[in-house]
Design a protein that fits this description.
elongated; 4 domains; 409 residues; alpha+beta; conserved putative lor/sdh protein from methanococcus maripaludis s2 fold; four-stranded antiparallel sheet; 5 helices
């Protein structure tokens, strides 16, 4: 049935329905605009009809978006600040605490005396060692003098025998030579005794120097474990520490890198750092070093970021969240992970629109973190990816598009 016939039939039905209720005279007395409106409505429905595709299929409206450049891979990890340097200080010698010169919180310079120990038996031992050195030096002088005397005797006898062979027998010359050799050996032994005595004295002097425990670097006293009068046992004998000194003007931010991120870790990776107790501030840094091996217990790799304390704002022991910018997605595109679908064979695809028709576009996914999917192949920057539309989209279906960004409402 063509459009004219449809219109005529519609009008006939309308006139009959009106005639069933009112007389013709009454009809023509009504406002003729009513009949005119009915005729126009019928013509619009018959001649125009709803929007249809090439084969009579209704064209749905879909919202589309374009892929965005992948921002580069990022990962957020927990971290903790540790002192750049820290040391537990032990006593080298056993003794009594005579004086504690620094307490918790005191800032100290390298070489500053922190604790003094009293070792009563060491002073006499040192005096004895110094006396032994003097005795060895005296013995060496006596041995040297005896050597010179025996050398003179030997030379005289040897010279006299050479000038007057009958004046000195050969035995006397040989005995003088032997005495000289003995004297020289005694002199060498005396010199060795001096070296031994001096080494013993230096050892005791070194131990005496260890009775004063000094700061190994510039820092602050973090812990104190002793008080005056306490007996401190040498660390070599299993003693406990006396103080802890840390350097807090520079810190190490320690991270545990999980296995999947290890291959992407390198020195110089930029990092954004937020501290739990300072939520309004963001700090920056770069990876300074990493271990290169995974810890067997946790299967993570230790990495460190060197940071200033920013005037004491950052402190050892604080927790932080570190966002590492790993990169590695240059030239790739990303779309919302919710737009990724899979066919019966498990292949990933997205619905796209091209020339007003829906297309099933296969994609190769580089990474999908559940929020966004990085696309390695299948899309280009001008692709129109279906963001919203009917649930029963099919390839080749005609659609009208409404473009908007993914995050727009």
């Amino acid at each position: 049935m063509d459009s004219t016939a449809s219109t005529a039939a519609f009008l006939d039905r309308s006139v009959i329905m009106l005639a069933a209720h009112k007389s013709p005279t009454i009809i023509f007395r009504q406002d003729r605009t009513v009949l005119f409106a009915v005729v126009l409505t019928a013509l619009a429905c018959v001649l125009v009809g709803p929007i249809r595709g090439a084969e009579g299929e209704v064209a749905a409206t879909v919202a589309v978006t374009r892929p965005e450049s992948a921002p580069g891979r990022q990962v957020a990890l927990p971290g903790s600040f540790e002192p750049y340097e820290q040391a537990l200080l032990y006593a080298k010698v056993t003794g009594y605490v005579a004086r504690v010169r620094a307490d918790i919180g005191d800032r100290v310079m390298r070489g500053t005396a922190l604790v003094e120990l009293d070792v009563p038996e060491m002073k006499p031992a040192l005096l004895r060692a110094r006396a032994d050195v003097l005795a060895a030096e005296v013995a060496q002088q006596k041995a040297q003098a005896q050597t010179e005397r025996d050398r003179i005797t030997y030379r005289r006898l040897a010279g006299l025998q050479a000038s007057e062979p009958l004046a000195v027998i050969q035995q006397d010359v040989d005995m003088a030579a032997a005495d000289l050799q003995v004297s020289e050996a005694v002199a060498r032994s005396a010199r060795a005794e001096i070296a031994v005595a001096e080494a013993k004295m230096e050892e005791l002097e070194a131990l005496m120097a260890y009775t004063v425990i000094r700061a190994p670097f510039d820092g602050v006293v973090a812990q104190r474990f002793v008080h005056p009068g306490a007996l401190v046992v040498s660390g070599a004998d299993g003693g406990d520490p006396v103080l802890e000194v840390v350097r807090e003007d520079r810190l190490r931010l320690v991270l545990a890198i999980p296995g999947p991120v290890v291959p992407l870790t390198r020195v110089g990776i930029p990092a954004e750092i937020t501290v739990d107790v300072l939520p309004q501030r963001t700090f920056t840094g770069t990876v300074t070093r990493y271990a290169g091996i995974l810890t067997p217990d946790t299967r993570t790799m230790r990495a460190e970021i060197d940071m200033d304390s920013h005037g004491g704002i950052l402190r050892p022991g604080m927790y932080a969240t570190v966002r590492l910018h790993l990169g590695g997605d240059d030239g790739l595109l990303s779309v919302s992970a919710a737009l990724i679908r899979h066919d019966e064979d498990g292949h990933a695809f997205v619905w796209t629109v091209r020339d007003g028709m829906v297309e099933k576009t296969s994609v190769e996914i580089a990474r999908d973190d559940g929020a966004s999917a990085v696309i390695r192949a299948g899309l280009h920057p001008d692709s129109l990816v279906v963001l919203e539309g009917p649930a029963d989209l099919d390839e080749g279906q005609p659609v009208s598009i409404r473009e908007r960004a993914e995050g727009a409402q």
